[in-house]
Amino acid sequence: MQHLLVNFIGGAFAIASLLLLSLGLAVIYGMMGVINLAQGEFVMLGAYTVLFTAAHGLTLWLGIVLAPVVVGLIGILVERGIIRFLYGRPLDTMLATWGLSLAFIAGTTLIVGPTTEGVATPFQHLTIGEYSVAVYNIFVIGIAAASFALTWFLFRFTKIGLLARATMQNAEMVAALGVSPPRIYMLTFGFGSALAGLAGAVMAPLTGVVPTLGMAFIAKIFITVTVGSTAIFTGTLAASGIFGAVESIVAFLSTPIYGQVAMLLCALVLLRVAPQGISSLWRRHG
Amino acid sequence: MAPTRLSRTEFAIWVAAAVAVVGLPLLLPIFSIVQLTVFLIFCLLAVSLDLAWGLAGLLSFGHAAFFGVGGYAYGILAVNGLATPAALLAGGISGALLAGILGYVAFYGRVSTIFLAVMTLTVTLILLQVMGSTADPSYRIGSAVLGGYNGITNIPSLALGLPLLPSIELGPAGFFRFVGGFLIVVLALGRLMTFAPFGRILATIRENEQRTELSGYDVRWRKLAVFAASGGIAGVAGGLFASWGNFINPEVFSLSQSAQVVIWVLVGGRGLLYGAVIGALVVQALTQYLGAIGTAYTALVLGLLMVAFVLLLREGLVPTFLRLSLILPRHKTPA
Amino acid sequence: MMVQTESSTPLLLETRCLSKEFGGVHALDGVNFRLRRGELRSLIGPNGAGKSTFFKILSGQLQPSKGDVLFDGKAIVGLPPHRIARLGIGIKNQVPSLWDGLSVYEHFWLAAYRHTGKRGAMERADRLLQQLGLWQKASQSVGTLSHGERQWVEIGMVMAQEPLLLLLDEPAAGMTEEEVERTAALLRAINTEASLIVVEHDMQFIRMLEGLVTVFYQGRVLMEDTIDAVLADAKVREVYLGTADSHG
Fold first, then answer.
1. Lower Cβ count inside 10 Å, N or C end of chain A?
2. Is the Cβ of C94 closer than 8 Å to some Cβ of chain B?
3. Neighbours of B319 (CB within 10 A)
4. Taking the model in full, what pTM does it have?
5. Which A positions 25-84 lie with beta carbon below 8 A of chain B?
6. What 3-state class would DSSP assign to C245?
7. Taking the domains of chain C in order of start, what are their residue ranges?
8. CB within 8 Å: B262 and A95
9. Do C102 and B200 touch (CB under 8 A)?
10. pLDDT at residue C166 above 60?
11. Mean model confidence pLDDT for chain B
12. Given strand C74-75, what is the order of strands in its sheet?
């Protein structure tokens, strides 16, 4: 029983961290049809925000609150400076953000050096019978669920969320209502970047912080978003669920690297079965 | 009939290039020849990407994966004593197979070009991690120790020979000529294909795939064919690279290596094939110059270069140059 | 008026209960449509009536939610677009869809090549340049052409396939009056060898085509008759104008 509970928490953590890491790009891709290859570097910059606040003797919580703000602003700058010139050219957007990703990694390395820095985990371990579970992992599950719910609420029930969804459907109509679609795109991109920053901040105590941090996550993020396709919520949730489970089971049986290989193979099969994204399996006209 | 065809000037340029490949080893010191050889291998890799991207509009973000898989296949087989030309062929086949599998999922599933780019990049990243995790000496295939991030060492150089006779190692000059010759053959065949009906149909797929299908052409196998060929040539380039340095390590699967291939073609310009060659040479020269300052600076400059070309010089150097000098060949009709 | 309605002519195309739903919206709702060999049919109907969706299903660009399409006696639902094209259905979509970097000549040549091989493709391309009056623009890339010329290039590409059935979605849109007349004459000439279905809004143009008219409304066939009968019908006037008593 205790064994089951511990395994359940482990699986839930794998799924939740995947969801948290992928949600930002899922929003950007789902809303704007754009893949940001520098998304991993946004995660990395979020982690550095936490490291920076910790180095100044401030609490981790402040870093976690600050990271989405800082990275969201960087995202808006990137959108204004690069992305907005490339709307309607998704491959060019990918190329440009790839260049940006290289530049971010190199730039960070030049400023702070290539070494891995640690951030202290604020919680201790919780004992369940003869097993112990890191309380911080449960905290990550909570944050992932909260960000997912908040994002869903934002797009479903607020005016700005409604406008964003309307812009995705028909930008001209929204423009006719007196709302500028470029402004909506800018905010959407900023929001997606902020989510990546939050993910980086939350994961930092678990992974350590290094300029190439984004590369550790980006393969998983791409797989999840690709298979989740444009269904931001159902698709990403389902894809995170499947891949989180596959990864943690295979990683448990062999090594974390084969966990990622299994994810990839699983993704290739899913893409062949459901090229329009995983949600098309249960929505006939998704 | 061909809607456009190879000009006489261009034919003359290919002949001149062939003469240069044969003659250069007589003029330059061995050190320069060895250095030039690896440049030519990179040119081959760039041309292979342009075959898919420039001709058919299929952008692979993981061309380094096909290159690396070819290199590893060559290394593993050559270390295990297979004749090196056969190992090189196997390198090409491995690259083509990997490209074929990814292409099959993408083209027959009709997933968008964005997904093709993302999936190829993901495969590269995972190969990097998988090959990097093989540091334990128990990871071996036959007598080839995979060696984790150190890679496979002591890979035999390419040796050519006739059956039944002992084969002879090519030496730096011979290897240079072999690589150069192969590059010219690929370029010339690629250029001929550009003007042949198959190449023109690829161009229509690049311009508007829907129209091509509505005209009765099956675009799926055509895309798969050119993508697999592109992966195969990248695989051969990888095998040549492993032979050149007598080693191969997971660095070939790194994100920056994949980005480099794309940058070569982006800078040189797409669709002409020789534009990719010029791009690879220009960027490699720049990389060597910057490498003296520091690798992080190289990555920073290459990254910014990529952003700048996408935003400001989308066509690339060679097509821009051709357009500015007004000698861009107009589509001629034999009317 | 030369209207072919003889029931002795064999059917070329038949749809049964054809329906298409997009996220709860019925773009097509049980369309039963029949076209005889040699017919030149016009489709009219207000925007959103389902005409373009109908064409996209016939050409394999969309899959129907329900229903069958029989072309020349064969069921074609589920076939990929290139297979349908090879069976003899050629389509010009509403928005001209061309290969922008390529020349006019190449468009015709490549459209014909699939069906004729090299030599035949040259002959067909030359003939089409002549017939469409695009001879002087043969080597221009189609990106530089006017809207009307682009329409002709796409019609010419469909002709180059020599299909049994041509589906033309708004072939005269954006053309001058003179160009419209030439297009109508061209379609009548094509009709001597092939069947056509033409979607148009311009009633003058439809009158010039001299064929039966099918009216689509809200994904269904509202009526099918000669142009004069259709225009005189109260229901059609209501659908088009909102009120029964305004002029057309």
1. N
2. no
3. 19
4. 0.89
5. 35, 37, 82
6. coil
7. 11-95+164-241
8. yes
9. yes
10. yes
11. 90
12. C25-36, C11-22, C66-71, C74-75
Q: Is residue B93 part of a domain?
A: yes
Calpha distance C2→C110 (Å, rounded): 35
C223 touches chain B (CB under 8 A): no
- Could B305 and A99 be called an inter-chain contact, meaning their C-beta atoms sit closer than 8 Å? yes
Interface mutation target, options B126, B130, B256, chain A, most CBs of A under 10 Å:
B126
pLDDT digits (tens, 9 = 90+) for B127-182: 998 898 888 888 888 888 898 899 999 999 998 876 666 667 788 999 999 999 99
State the smallest CA–CA distance between residue A114 and chain B in angstroms: 10
With an 8 Å Cβ cutoff, is B109 touching chain A?
yes
The answer to the question of residue B12 being in a domain is no
* Mean pLDDT, rounded, for B115-134: 88
Q: B166: buried, middle or exposed (CB in 10 Å: 19+, 13-18, 0-12)?
A: exposed
CB-nearest partner of B204 from C81, C102, C105: C102
* pLDDT surpasses 50 at B274: yes
End-to-end CA separation in angstroms for chain C: 21
- Domain count along chain B: 1
pLDDT of residue C248: 39
Options 3.40.50.300, 1.10.150.20, 3.10.120.10, 3.40.50.10260; CATH for C11-95+164-241 is 3.40.50.300
The answer, for A92 touching chain B at a CB cutoff of 8 Å, is: yes
Q: Which chain C residues are Cβ-neighbours of B210 within 8 angstroms?
A: 61, 81, 97
* Per-residue pLDDT at C212: 93
Q: Which of B112, B122, B297 sits opposite A223 (nearest CB)?
A: B122
**Mean pLDDT rounded to a whole number for chain C:** 89
Angle formed at CA C89 by CA C211 and CA C118, multiple of 5 degrees: 120
CA distances from C9 to A5, B224, C37, C75 (A): 74, 43, 6, 20
B241 assigned to some structural domain: yes
- Does residue B121 form part of some domain? yes
The string of pLDDT tens digits covering residues A186-226 is 999 999 999 999 999 999 999 999 999 998 899 889 889 98
pLDDT digits (tens, 9 = 90+) for C32-73: 999 999 999 999 998 888 999 999 999 999 999 999 999 999
Give me A226's structure tokens: 């690709």
Kindly list the domain boundaries of chain A, sorted by start residue: 2-210
Task: Give the range of the structural domain holding residue B113, as residue numbers without chain letter.
Answer: 28-254
Tokens 């690879």, residue located: B280
Does the distance separating the beta carbons of C111 and B200 come in below 8 Å? no
